[in-house]
Amino acid sequence: MLKLEDVSYVYQKGSPFEKEALKNVNITVEDGEFVGLIGHTGSGKSTLIQLFNGLLKPSSGRVLIDGVDIGTLKSLRDVRFKVGLVMQYPEYQLFEETVYKDIAFGPRNMGLSEEETDRRVRFAASMVGLSEAALDKSPFEMSGGQKRRAAIAGILAMEPKILVLDEPTAGLDPSGRDEILFKIKDMHARTGATVILVTHSMEDVARLAERIIVMNKGALAMDGSVREVFSRGAELEKMGLAVPQVTKITDNLRERVPSVKRGIFTVREAEREIAAALREGEVNR
Amino acid sequence: MGTDDIIKIENLNFSYSNSETGESTEVLKNINLNVRRGEFVAVLGHNGSGKSTLAKLMNAILTPTSGRVLADGIDTSDESRLFDIRSRVGMVFQNPDNQLVTTIVEEDVAFAPENMGVPPAEIRKRVDYALKTVGMYEFRRSAPHHLSGGQKQRVAIAGVLAMMPDVIVLDEPTAMLDPSGRREIMDTVSRLNRDEGMTVILITHYMDEAVRADRVVVISDGEIVRDAPPREVFSRVDELKKIGLDVPQSTELAYLLSKDGFDIKTDVLNADECTSEIERLLMQTGK
Fold first, then answer.
1. Using the beta-carbon criterion (under 8 Å), do A281 and B286 form an inter-chain contact?
2. Considering the domain boundaries, does residue A64 fall inside one?
3. Average pLDDT for residues A21-36, to the nearest whole number?
4. Chain B residues inside the 8 Å CB shell of A285
5. A102, A158, B40, B59: which could join B193 in a potential S-S bond, CB 3.0 to 4.6 Å?
């Protein structure tokens, strides 16, 4: 379990550039959850995830992992293995001669045997859909999408209990994006790891997560199910977050047809609702 | 001065060759494309479609394997004219951090004209014009690393504007930005085209960005598969999905409803258009 208690974070404290990035944030994420974390740039979401594995220390408040305040630990080594953080554009961090060695870097660092490392490398590679042949390649001769997957596999190979991904689909085209998201969803289903997906794509969140946390100006603005959050479309737009177009369309139509459901976020669901309304021909004028 | 077509691409083929194996990979096949002065053209394609390669061929970062590219009538394969080509065709790339080189915004914008040997008084004028045009004038004394992604990218655009090019080619300029940053850039690009008459070539895989263009060129597997106004291109939902592109949700919704037998226009491009089409249908059924 990951728990943040009254966490605040101030950058460059005491300097003229002092900036409060997080204000009194309280979040609890249970084991096995799939949470979408959204917010526009500067909302504090990147600061937040760096607190999860101790890359940053809260200015006040506590970060607890499985009940242990990580601020009291002498070494954060175990925390780093428990909470796997996939940074933005992780392919820039590939450095080994082969994909295999790159993925093996984490497990080797954990002091695992060669046998266990090998098992994990192959498992992680299969998880992200990299073939056996790809393992012998240099990461630098692979396509952007493949590099991204290799970098994610490097974190998966440490088998973290909590996997945090910061914009894993940034810069990918729709098919590359869908592929990565599908693999993450699959991985979540198969390993039961907690997944926290940071994104500004409402569509991605809608398709994958069970719960959405919305950050705005360093504070927790919303925390609820996907439908609950998307039913607050007007508020989200005010925070500079784009709601899915079908959410907007069905919100517009509700003025005329009050029976249209709130918080619709997929095209198929919108189609069903609108087709039903049209067939009934119910019009409130 | 130049011709009416600021960019002319004739029978272009482009292949990369691997220096070790000697194998060559065909990236672009038989491309013919003309862009008129003042036009706003979006080039749409999935990753690996060849769209970024096409962008790089427009200002001689790459040159054709066969066929030719003319920028304002100048053949991009003519190395002696590189300076003329680059000063006419400005490029904006994906990552704003890789394009900003100095520690103060206005110095960054002045960088290219300084290198081009523009006189100082003229540089001052250009920098002010460029920063005002992208709405970053009030940040002229700021440090780029204190800016948001969208702001940095606007500074990068100002840097290109300060060269006074005839055409701006933007290669996925919003790929690394959040929704508000994307909106900032797209508003800036639309304004540049509409108010300043700048020719814009936007390389993107976001349909909702391509919607703003006069014309959409769709590239798939190195070939142009469609070249038409956005409405016409986007109403082909099945075709676009097949080549791995996303259709705006509004367009897809209208398309699905029409398949369900409702008499709805399928060339809607945004939520408002889709809403009013559905409202029109509701009015009809209510009678």
1. yes
2. no
3. 96
4. 286
5. B40
CA gap A269, A259 in Å, rounded = 14
Q: Which two tokens stand for residue A125?
A: 């590679």
Banded pLDDT at A285 (limits 50, 70, 90): very low
How far is residue B107's CA from residue B114's CA, in Å, rounded to a whole number?
Answer: 9
Give residue A272's domain range: 244-285
Mean pLDDT of chain B: 90
Residues B196 and B119: beta-carbon distance below 8 Å: no
The structural domain count of chain A equals 1
Q: Is residue A276 part of a domain?
A: yes
* Class of domain B5-247 (CATH, top level): alpha beta
Which residues in A lie closer than 8 A to residue B256 (C-beta atoms)? 267-268, 271
CATH 3.40.50.300 occupies which residues in chain B? 5-247
What are the chain B neighbours of A241 within 8 Å (beta carbons)?
179
Question: In whole angstroms, what is the distance from residue A72 CA to residue A54 CA?
Answer: 11
Report ipTM (2 d.p.): 0.72
Give the tens place of pLDDT for each residue, A29-40: 999 999 999 988
Q: How would residue A283 be classed by pLDDT, with cut points 50, 70 and 90?
A: very low
* Residue A280 belongs to a domain: yes
| Cα dihedral value A63, A68, A70, A75, nearest 10 | -170
Size of interface A-B (CB pairs under 8 A): 108
Q: For B126-165, write each residue's pLDDT tens digit.
A: 999 999 999 999 999 999 988 888 899 999 999 999 999 9
The three-class DSSP label of residue A22 is: strand
Could you give the CA distance from residue A126 to residue A117 in angstroms, rounded to a whole number? Answer: 14
Q: Is A274 a member of any domain?
A: yes
Cβ <8 Å between B278 and A278: yes
